[in-house]
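In the design runs reported in the main text, the only information available to the sequence generator was the tokenized backbone. The following block is the verbatim input for one such run; it is reproduced so that readers can re-run the procedure and compare outputs position by position.
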């Protein structure tokens, strides 16, 4: 679906609706470029765009299939840039990934978006209200989209960090009913997807800011390096999340083993208590005629006192050893 199609001339958006055919013609003028925005387009729509703007078929194939890793590829004078926006659904602890594929040429920008994260309407509104930035041409659109996507990583980092702190509290909680192993494992998978979106993007943005491309002037490279600096703060945090979750999972397993050992020791202690009266009662229940204290009036209290004394001694020893 074509969301928006506009032509920019001398840093300002051309008034009135613009068709795809008109945009492909007007963008060839000096000081002009077209920005075409598509959302989950069909094969037919992309083929039509490919024919109008002369896109490389391999890049178009990637745009149709999506599910690409963040990357930067060069096809003649057109840059093909892939990045993955994300958003964090906190109640479900799910990181939702989208995909934005950009064709950036001195005459046009074509943005193909898949998924809901990081809608580009706010980016277009920002650029429409900033003639100085949009005057840098299609490279300004690429920078603004990168900046928006990387800024949207921050709330995700904060949300995951808060949930990991909750997990750490659960792992070391005294509440035996809490077992966050499933939560840890699920969140670790989400963080792994986040890492796959962020780490390759840092490499692509670094290349974009260091090399000379026709659509990126010297001033824009400074802005892009600033985006790269933001990414370099996010990447170690995401790697740290993976390490923390792995450590938390190991700690949870250790805690579970410790609690099981404590339960076994308590059970063993109570079994020992029960073994004493059981053994004595078993001996005196064998119905022999000649047994100690069988005919004595003090025999029964003596046996009870013996059982009680042994149990008291066992209790004190088990208590001192930490089994009770």
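Verbatim output:
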């Amino acid at each position: 679906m074509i969301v928006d199609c506009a032509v920019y001339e001398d840093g300002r958006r051309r008034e009135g609706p613009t068709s795809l055919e008109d945009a492909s013609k007007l963008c060839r003028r000096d000081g002009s470029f077209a920005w075409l925005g598509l959302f989950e387009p069909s094969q037919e729509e992309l083929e039509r765009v490919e024919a109008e703007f002369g896109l490389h078929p391999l890049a178009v194939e990637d745009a149709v299939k999506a599910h690409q890793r963040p990357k930067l590829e060069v096809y003649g004078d057109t840059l093909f840039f892939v990045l993955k926006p994300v958003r964090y659904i906190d109640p479900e602890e799910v990181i939702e990934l989208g995909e934005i594929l950009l064709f950036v040429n001195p005459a046009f920008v074509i943005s193909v978006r898949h998924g809901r994260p990081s809608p580009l309407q706010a980016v277009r509104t920002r650029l429409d209200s900033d003639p100085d930035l949009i005057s840098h041409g299609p490279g300004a659109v690429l920078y603004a989209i990168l900046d928006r996507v990387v800024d949207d990583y921050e709330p995700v980092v904060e949300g995951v960090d808060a949930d990991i702190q909750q997990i750490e509290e659960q792992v070391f909680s005294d509440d035996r009913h809490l077992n966050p192993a499933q939560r840890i494992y699920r969140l670790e998978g989400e963080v792994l997807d986040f890492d796959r979106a962020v780490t390759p993007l840092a490499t692509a943005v670094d290349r974009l800011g260091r090399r000379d491309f026709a659509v990126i002037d010297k001033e824009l490279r400074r802005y892009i390096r600033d985006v790269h600096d933001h990414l370099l703060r996010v990447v170690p945090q995401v790697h740290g999340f993976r390490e923390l979750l792995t450590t938390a999972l190991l700690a949870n397993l250790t805690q579970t083993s410790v609690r099981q050992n404590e339960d076994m020791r308590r059970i063993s202690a109570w079994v020992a208590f029960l073994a004493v009266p059981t053994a004595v009662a078993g001996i005196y229940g064998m119905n022999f005629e000649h047994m100690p204290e069988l005919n004595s009036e003090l025999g029964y209290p003596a046996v009870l006192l013996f059982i009680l004394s042994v149990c008291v001694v066992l209790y004190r020893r088990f208590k001192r050893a930490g089994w009770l």
